[in-house]
Amino acid sequence: MQKEAAIREPLILGHKTYHDVTEDVCRPIEDKAPKMWYILFGIALVIGLYGVGSILYLLGTGIGVWGLNKTIGWAWDITNFVWWVGIGHAGTLISAVLLLFRQKWRMAINRSAEAMTIFAVFMAGTFPLIHMGRLWVGYWVMPIPNQFGSLWVNFNSPLLWDVFAISTYLSVSLVFWYIGLIPDFATIRDRAKKPLARKMYGILSFGWSGRAKHWNRFELVSLVLAGLATPLVFSVHSIVSFDFATSVIPGWHTTIFPPYFVAGAVFSGFAMVQTLLLIMRKAMGLEAYIHTKHVEYMNIVIMVTGSIVGTAYITELFISWYSGVEYESYAFINRATGPYWWAYWSMMTCNVISPQLMWIRSLRRSLLFTFFISIVVNIGMWFERYVIIVTSIHRDYIPAAWSMHFPSHIDIAVYIGTIGLFFVFFLLFARYFPVLALNEVKTILKGSGQSYKESPDYHKHH
Amino acid sequence: MSDKVLYVMYDDDEVLKNSAKQLVAKGVKISEVFSPFPIHGIDPIIGVKNTRLGIMAFLYGLTGLTLATVGMRFFMIVDWPMNIGGKPNFSYLENMLAFVPITFEFTVMCAAHGMAITYLLRNKTLPGMPAQNPDPRTTDDKFVMEIRLSENHKVTEAELDGMLQEIGYLELDKKEIK
Q1: Which of B79, B105, B170 has the highest number of chain A CBs within 10 A, making it the mutation to test binding with A?
Q2: Which end of chain A is less enclosed by CB atoms within 10 A, N or C?
Q3: Which residues contact A325 (CB under 8 A, 6 or more apart)?
Q4: pTM value?
Q5: Distance between CA atoms of residues A236 and A134, nearest Å
Q6: Does A248 have pLDDT greater than 90?
């Protein structure tokens, strides 16, 4: 059993026993869903289906239904892709990087953050697939022998790197998540009273029995997967940034893109985790496990990564002027003062100023304020991608080709639709899956539970 | 051969660990421990060796690295050398930098999935497998030691009962296995 300093706030509040942890996590799954769940699920489903309909219309008609033109060939599609991939960075960061750093507070949030990651990457993956127009030939991105002669995909292209990066990230995150879920499914299986539930959770739990040797393997597999997933998290968004950074477009051709994108991704990912968890902890009665201290820790991450992002914005701006390259300087002056000034300044306000407020302790411990900022950050991060993508290409080298981007109805519907689908997945997860890594939480109960920390025996040796 | 199995239940991981220590000191072999979460330090007591899955992960990673290198060399250098802007791909080394991202991703993919699949196969935990824990409460808050008489020739059942009485337990369950 691991002890921690008495001065640290306990991670599990109240007087919980091992059984209480099981009860608290399993009860929402076993009880009937509250009415609010059905209402939210209904709304999310309608929005999601509208998005699916729009995607089908797009596939039937062609990507001309988006508001693209010959100057602006990439707009909301790639903006949404990068936005979702960015959001999908928090889960694996929490479960992998924080595992390597032995941050115990991750245990209460890693399960739902990883679920969010996986669903966000699903949504992200939709955009490159549908932007092909002909979805049914999507498998052409794979290097498979074909009837067109010895024709292969271009391994020099960052777009192909992206294919490998995203598919690796998605599948490895999924495996990491599921391996952690197996013992928790076994707990639900062994409690289930209804035969159907017992059967379903029996299948999902793969016959897990909790043998000592299995736990030994489990711990090593978690550690090695964390070791593998940590560079993966950083590589994925670096590669996404290469989509832009390796091009020759002023405003994209920037060497600081990889670290700046990774920081931005973590920034937006944690904001989304805050948005979801602040509601979930309340709705599912998990206040004892996910409390102010967890929120504060996450706000500190938001503050740090937000500061990195802010520094990157200012560095970019300075270097564009300092480089003496006319086109480069123009790209940035145009961002701030051109027709898209409103997008640039929204981005600056949301991403540079708002995270700095987290220096104030009372603000970063305020749940209401955190919820507000988490939404602001995600709006800001959407604008960041929009600013980088659209403002850099809407002014071509030839003024005759200058253009503006106006999203079409389908642009908006597909984007909003992915948000709907994301919530459909997340609500299903919250209803049927253990939202907290309950068996992992039990391992810190004695080390960091309030009743144990306050007991007089805590600082005695056994 | 018929066998008798003793399932000794505890409600605390530390208590189980202490009991296991005392039993092992008296020459009792504990076949298995079932617990809702990993009990740190139990493995050396009951003689569970450390897993070698880490080595497997490394080997799978090495396989991925090799496959990616061989594959990309074949696609880009041998089979269809592309001439981009008058800069042809003469050799793998000259073009290697562009292959780093995919080499890395593929290595990670093979290592992670290879290890995960091996883990599930070695554990015999696969979809639809039946649960083998002796009591459903062992995935909640109970901890169970399994002692098989066939593996303990030095002590009789009565002696074992005596030891357990002395050490203490929460519940004791005996089962005949044919």
Answers
A1: B105
A2: C
A3: A250
A4: 0.91
A5: 25
A6: no
